[in-house]
Amino acid sequence: MMKGKLAGRVAIVTGAGRGIGRAVAQTFATEGAAVVAGARSSSDLEALVEEITGRGARAIAVAGDIGDPATSERLVRAAVETFGGCDVLANLAAIGGPVGNVEELDPDDWNQTFRINVTGTFLACRAVLPEMKRRGGGRIVNVASGLAERVQPGQSAYSATKAAVVQFSRVLAEEARDAGINVNAVHPGIVRTKMVADLLSLPPEGVNESMVKRLRALDADGLIIETETSASFFVWLVSECTDTGKFLKIDEFLR
């Protein structure tokens, strides 16, 4: 068994194929956790698991649509059958959703954003709770965003889903408190993912103007966080943090 802050733990990480989710899965494994990595793309997951197991850590892949209840059930079943249970759930699966003023948005795109970002989070939490209760406790981290609080024109769908994740996490924390399960929503920071890189490459005009200008200013000031730094925040959340029912932000962790 590998040593580390998460030695002996079993962690499910959704959205593990790319970006922050991939970095979190890698870092959890480095810290000793057995990782069940979930994402839609089987090829992304296979590459991740090969990288983790290649350095002597433990990981398996479960590909599927997080908006489908069967996917969360398969994630938990894989954790129990392969590693004996589940102690940690990190919900990082999300999409950016449609960008534009409200009257321009397609209802189907709006609904799909809620299906993945909110319903997917709910389904994963719902599936893992019985197993965590059986084991006497656990840690759930649901990824929100600064846009759960900050107003950004053109981002109503994404912002609304992340605000919903924050409030959902607060309610679940109270429901699960007596079972020893800590639940928090987190803002992982502005992280240098492909999505952020794509935004930085856009011309600052139209509906994206204020966002692109803000990202460029943050980049110039060295305030865009690397994925590895954000992943270390998640390790702290599931190993040392005792808060529950909070909206925790990486800025506070890095001070």
Characteristic terms for this protein:
255 residues; alpha/beta; Rossmann fold; 2 domains; 7-stranded parallel beta sheet; 7 strands; 49% helix; 14% strand; oxidoreductase; SDR family oxidoreductase; oxidoreductase activity, acting on the CH-OH group of donors, NAD or NADP as acceptor; Sc_DH/Rdtase_CS
Task: Describe this structure as you would to a colleague.
Helix content is 49%, strand content 14%. It is an alpha/beta fold. It folds into 2 domains: 10-188 and 227-250, NAD(P)-binding Rossmann-like Domain (Rossmann fold), CATH 3.40.50.720; 190-224, no CATH class. Strands 3-2-1-4-5-6-7 form a 7-stranded parallel β-sheet, with helices on both faces. Helix 4 links the parallel strand 4 (88-91) and strand 5 (138-143). The model has no long low-confidence stretch (mean pLDDT 91). Keywords: Oxidoreductase.
Instruction: Please write the CATH class name of the largest domain.
Output: Alpha Beta
What would you call the structural class? Answer: alpha/beta
**How many H/I helical runs?**
9
Give the topology string: H per helix, E per strand.
Answer: EHEHEHEHEHEHHHEH
CATH topology of the largest domain: Rossmann fold
Proportion of residues in extended strands: 5-15%
Question: What's the CATH superfamily of the largest domain, by name?
Answer: NAD(P)-binding Rossmann-like Domain
Q: Distance between termini?
A: 32 Å
Oligomerization category of the chains in this entry: single chain
- Estimate nothing, just give the exact number of structural domains: 2
Rg over CA atoms = 18 Å
Label the overall shape.
Answer: globular
CATH architecture of the largest domain: 3-Layer(aba) Sandwich
* Percent helix: 40-55%
Mean pLDDT: 91
How are the strands of the largest sheet arranged? 3-2-1-4-5-6-7
Instruction: Sketch the major β-sheet.
Output: 7 strands, parallel
Enzyme class: oxidoreductase
GO molecular function, one term: oxidoreductase activity, acting on the CH-OH group of donors, NAD or NADP as acceptor
Keywords: Oxidoreductase
InterPro entries: NAD(P)-bd_dom_sf, Sc_DH/Rdtase_CS, SDR_fam
